[in-house]
Amino acid sequence: MATGPSTSETWDALFGDFYLRAYAREDDEGAHDQALAAARLAGCPEGGELIDVPCGFGRHAITLARAGFRVTGVDRSATLLGEARRRAGNARWPKFVQADYRKLPFPDGRFDAALNLFSSLGYLGDDEDTKALAEIRRVLKPGARLVLEIMPRDLLAAHFTERDWSAVGSGRLLLEQRAFDPAGGVAQVTQTLIEPDGARESMTFSVRVYATTELLAMARAAGFTEARAYGDFTGGPADLGLRLVLVASA
């Protein structure tokens, strides 16, 4: 099993057409509700400027723009951004920018809030993930908040399963097979998409899974003045039965 996260080449291959076929449902009500709740928890003012990073295919950014926020979605993947632009149509917002979140093309202190949702940290390893958090902090206004939503190591360990199946739309199935090293905090996952005609395609990757205490320490190391852990987007207590929502103030 891998001792650290996968290479950038692996992530670039994963976050393309394969990812769209696995996750890009058109009727994702859960993502709609999460986006609005995350913006509220971030304290983004009405009509405020918000960065969704990484934004993927616009799962959250489009909902937030329709709610009146001036949203900029940032992602490394040209394929996912292409789908995001298709879904957004000709609307003025959101804007979409292709960039690595370790080097954001924006001035210091531009945004009123930042969102990092759907387990979008852990791809780079401790130092580079901390660098990404520091870059997000840099582009936030003083006192503005980052809301990060992720599956923490303790939750994964408590509910770990080696494999499961799910229907992902259009008659397609997704099989996930997993191995997990709790000491190193690394999960290795093989995802197999099975098309209605029986055709199969698989991708294997390794991702760093952080404990809550590690994420809080990383936020401090990235320069955030305060970081708190919650169990949901309402600010409820962190609990092993829930995902982790981290709120960090610039």
Please provide a written account of the structure.
This protein has 250 residues and is of the alpha/beta class. It folds into 2 domains: 8-151 and 210-249, Rossmann fold (3-Layer(aba) Sandwich); 155-206, N-terminal domain of TfIIb (Single Sheet). It has 8 helices and 11 strands. The chain has helices at residues 8-14, 17-23, 29-42, 61-66, 78-88, 126-138, 153-158, 212-221; strands at residues 49-52, 70-75, 95-98, 111-116, 140-150, 163-167, 173-181, 186-194, 200-208, 226-230, 244-249. The strands form 2 sheets. Strands 3-2-1-4-5-11-10 form a 7-stranded mixed sheet, sandwiched between helices. A 4-stranded antiparallel sheet has the order 6-7-8-9. The longest helix is centred in the N-terminal third of the chain and has 14 residues, at 29-42. It starts with 7 loop residues before the first helix and ends with a strand.
